[in-house]
Amino acid sequence: MAHTKKRKRTFLKTLALCLSMIAVTSAWQTPSSTVHAAAQDNNVMWSGLFHDQGPVYDNNLEPTSAQSVTLKFRTYTNDITTANIRYYDSADSAYHWVAMTKVGNDATGNYEFWQGTVPASSSVKHYHFQINDGSKTVWYDAKGPSDTEQTTRDFFIIPGFKTPDWMKNGIIYQVFPDRFYNGDTSNDIQTNDDRYNGNLAEKKAWGSAVAASAGYNNNLVFFGGDLDGVNQKISYIKGTLGANILYMNPIFSAPTNHKYDTEDYYTVDPALGSNTLLQTLVSNMHSSSNGPQGYVVLDGVFNHTGDTNKWFDKYNKWSTQGAYESQTSTWYNYYTFQAWPNTFSLFGTSSRLPKLNYGATGSAVRNDIYNNSNSVAKTYLSAPYNIDGWRLDAPQYADANGGGGSNSTNHTIWQEFRTAVKSVNPNAVVFGEYWGNASSWASTGDQWDGATNFDGFTQPVSEWITGKDYSNNAASIPTSQFDTWLLGTRANYPTNVQQVMSNHLSNHDITRFGTRAAGDIWKTYLALFFQMTYVGTPTIYYGDEYGMQGGADPDNRRTFDWTQGTTANSAVALTQKLISIRSQYPALRTGSFMTLLADDATKVFSYGRFDNTNRIAVALNNDSSRKSITVPVSKLSVVDGSTMTDKITGTVYTVSGGNVTVSVDGHYGAILVQ
């Protein structure tokens, strides 16, 4: 690789500078003495280059159309002669240049900073940097340095695009309601209740196996968890753990336990409670008297309905006529029939999930789902519910006339949906379920705020720590590949989108992390360290905080073991501590991210999170044995003789030779703060 050859050519210079990469200081100052190993010699030292859109390097991450954006770039001291910002402006579909000026050095003297300003306008812009040392030019974009200019890996400037601050700074706790806590036994579904056109329910005892007994269906197994149970356990979610965002799998009336087959969008399923109880739950989450002020996100199943929905009504349940019953039905065009009534567009292969036909802009479906004041989306965002946003189920498939989505119609739907949601609550969140690169929806500023981060978090974390992919298949990656994977997937999104990506170890569709880790709780510890210190919104799938086991669906939806829901459980206690640390330091939430060390041989991964106030070095040991890890904190502009404190153990370390050496248990971590 080109950069490998460059590192060989510049090895002696790099060694003299301790391989420093990153700088941050609260005051841009000229040091009393400067390291001069770098030289203007027609050779740019890659290891000294750095920029991201953290607060040190970008003064206005979410500008309005009237605000310019001032950018800083870091190099080794005296290593380059000129630097430029090169930005693409969608207003004229052309690239433009901004010359940068040198503005000072960091506290160590190893680095200098260059600065330039992109002028204000309402148009979307993308940018990268040109770094020059005499005749030598290096380009730098969201994936780092390159000898050749790239135009598809730029940083983003999207005026007027803001993602919710509460999501950036929050912790999501995901609840599958039937399996979390039974707060009201009077509404429990009983064995042999007719749940779905003659298909009978099975009521099972809390803690028993989730798979259905012979003669029953997995989707019709019930344990009695409900909204009252969630409400009673707010003290655990907010108080014990410190999570402040409640995301619940669907709660609206539906025959199944998972409720992705919506029967009535306007009614909470009676087995889960009532609409009034939902209001109480949201109010209690919003309260700051029972823990941190909280938020509630509901699961929006808007790509399809169930076949028992009033709009479809396959089984003549409703007094009105649905699309399946009559071609003159009010709702006939809400679905796409190839041959009425038995052949219609489906979600996936399930005939129980007829796909909604969104038609053209202004269609009845669009109005009922999100446009009208009494639409589903707006009803729950408004009083008396006042939820704080929607997680969208399978949103890439939403389309007109039975189409498969992922096209211009699909994007128009979510543009309109965003406009509708933000008209009710500008601070509401919209994030989509997506298993790959969601940039088509989340990097445009006019659709989703973020997405479920399977591709940029769940999968690489699982492969690095457990040696399994999220489906529990063998798939192991070394530390360097883990680092490269993370960098590549961060580069897919604007930074304010990265900060609200939902970072989950498990969810209701994949094998539990605890099972992928073969029950090794230390691997859960390590995963929690990373989850709570990485870029994005940590998302705890109920029970992951104590290492809950679970195979493929439906086993990943076991009941919560409340004997483990206490800080007497070491993993729960660690979760509480890590959340507390994350909440204390904005640098862990919205600060820069910089790799410090990615060592395949030792399985050590270390990185910095920093802003204008704090410099934090995280050291993770992915080996089974305790290790002494030397962290090159000079890359964070931490000076010799200063101290850093491990917030896990309380140990104070003095920086020497640009490093801090810390001993870390196997599958564990350290969080060094200055």
TrEMBL record:
GO terms for biological process: carbohydrate metabolic process. Keywords: Glycosidase, Hydrolase, Signal. Pfam families: Alpha-amylase, Alpha-amylase_N. The keyword Isomerase does not apply. Residues 1-37 form the signal peptide. It comes from the Bacteria. Residues 174-582 form the Glycosyl hydrolase family 13 catalytic domain. This is Glycoside hydrolase family 13 protein. It comes from Paenibacillus cremeus.
